[in-house]
Design a protein that fits this description.
- Strand 1 and strand 2 form a beta hairpin.
- It contains one helix and two strands, in the order ββα.
- The protein has one helix at about 30-70, and strands at about 10, 15.
- Strands 1-2 form a two-stranded antiparallel sheet.
- It is mainly alpha-helical.
- The chain starts with 8 loop residues before the first strand and ends in an 11-residue tail after the last helix.
- The chain is rod-shaped and about 100 Å long.
- Belongs to the UQCRQ/QCR8 family.
- It is found in: Mitochondrion inner membrane.
- Its main location: mitochondrion.
- Keywords: Electron transport, Membrane, Mitochondrion, Mitochondrion inner membrane, Respiratory chain, Transmembrane, Transmembrane helix, Transport.
- This is Cytochrome b-c1 complex subunit 8.
Length: about 80
């Protein structure tokens, strides 16, 4: 292959690409592209995530309330105890 962009070379069938640390901008576009992209992705997926979670919470809450109601003792069963 030879040397060129980023010291491109071939070693035993493996192509390796390298960039100088001075060429790399790890956080470029974080605020201008990253935050809006994150908000857009959340807005697109919220309708797929929230309804099942809400349904699951409602079902769990109702089952717990019913379980607590069934576990209570009936005071009428113990009126004649002395």
């Amino acid at each position: 292959m030879g040397h060129g962009f980023g010291q491109l070379y071939k070693l035993r069938g493996i192509i390796t690409y390298r960039l100088s640390p001075f060429e790399l901008k790890a956080f470029s576009g974080l605020f201008s592209h990253g935050i809006p992209n994150t908000l857009r992705r959340i807005r697109e997926e919220i309708l797929y995530v929230v309804p099942p979670l809400a349904i699951g919470y409602v079902v769990y809450d109702q089952v717990e309330k019913e379980h607590m109601r069934l576990m209570r003792k009936n005071p009428a069963d113990y009126e004649n105890d002395q």
